[in-house]
Amino acid sequence: FDGTLNTKHIIIATGARVRGIPGVTMDGDKVITYREAIHLRQAPRSMVIIGAGIGSLGKMLGEWEVPVAHFIEADEKQIQRMKATLTGHTDWHIHRALLWRASAEIPFYRASNPAESGILQPETLASLWPNLKTRDEELRQSTTLNNLLHDIQPQTPPNWLVVDCFPALPILQGAGKWLDTSEVIVARVILDDDTVPDEGASKPELDDFLQANGFRCIALQEERQPQIASALYVREYKPQLDQLTQTAASLEQDKHALATRRDELEKLIGELTRAQDEQARLAAERQAQLTAAN
User: Fold this and answer.
1) Phi and psi angles of residue 257, each rounded to the nearest 5 degrees, phi first
2) Does the structure show a pLDDT above 60 at 106?
3) Does 28 have pLDDT greater than 70?
4) Other beta carbons less than 10 A from residue 71's beta carbon
5) Of 159, 80, 69, which Cα lies nearest the Cα of 114?
6) Measuring CA to CA, how many Å separate 152 from each of 16, 95, 143?
7) Rounded to an integer, what distance in angstroms lies between the CA atom of residue 119 and that of residue 174?
């Protein structure tokens, strides 16, 4: 197409990855990405951000005016850098914790690039970053997201979960009931499951787990390293609506059956009452006859 279109609103559907348009700035207001679109539909009432040490989401959350946010980070040095993010937000909190699928003693690796520190050994990412190395490692006590949030007792259950670190799968496997309260999940993933096999960092692994829990991936935003992206998952409500519809239909059938049974019982009670009255009348006549005979 070569020409001019005049209209009030334009939606450009270029696929599941955010692509910039030459000469057009995505300002988050008139020109938005999928993140802003999801925010308009399912605004975060409360967010949990795991692996938040770099603080890259702080500006976005401030612009979105997220009322409640819990930042979870395992590295104390990163936490110190994050503290400025909390300025002016009384219901934003930082928690130091190492999250995994279970409470256990596991290795924590500090990487030459602090953004990649975590429970995934940096050398396993050599195909992505050949120069990434382990600076040091230590055994740390992990906990689950379920246990941590149970201890925090957030007044507003989080409806957004953001896992901004590797690997996302074991962290979300430990979310427990808090996965059920979530409407949106954003997770950092490796697109090719052969890059780091069986570590829970790949998108295919996360897809399988989240689809089984009622979520669907609707968008990807690639990082500078094109094999890494932020994957956006939203809860699929259609299966739940279908289940509710089936339940309602079943209840309606039960209601009809109960009404039919009630009518049958009322008819039976009427017949028994008439039979009882007839027996009482006959007994009275018999008694009158016996009295007259005497």
Assistant:
1) -65, -40
2) yes
3) no
4) 28
5) 80
6) 35, 9, 13
7) 15
> Locate tokens 């590295």: which residue?
75
| Structure tokens given for 13 | 């559907």
Nearest CA to 198 out of 221, 170, 171 is that of 170
Residues facing residue 234 across a β-bridge: 184, 216
Beta bridge partners of 281: none
Q: Are strands 160-163 and 134-141 parallel, antiparallel or unpaired?
A: unpaired
User: Mean per-residue pLDDT for 41-67?
Assistant: 76
Instruction: Please list, in sequence order, all residues whose beta carbon lies within 8 angstroms of the beta carbon of residue 251, skipping any fewer than 6 positions away.
Output: none
Using alpha carbons, select from 158, 45, 156, 50 the residue that is nearest to residue 101: 50
Three state DSSP letters for the chain:
CCCCCCCCCCCCCCCCECCCECCECCCCCCCCCHHHHHHHHCCCCEEEEECCCCCCCHHHHHHHCCCEEEEEECCHHHHHHHHHHHCCCCCEEEEECCECCCCCEEEEEEECCHHHCECCCHHHHCCCCCCCCEEEEEEEECECHHHHHHHHCCCCCCCEEEECCCCHHHHHHCCCCHHHHCCEEEEEEECCCCCCCCCCCEHHHHHHHHHHCCEEEEEEEECCCCCEEEEEEEECCHHHHHHHHHHHHHHHHHHHHHHHHHHHHHHHHHHHHHHHHHHHHHHHHHHHHHHHHC
Average pLDDT, the chain: 85
What is the 3 state secondary structure string of 71-128?
A: EEECCHHHHHHHHHHHCCCCCEEEEECCECCCCCEEEEEEECCHHHCECCCHHHHCCC
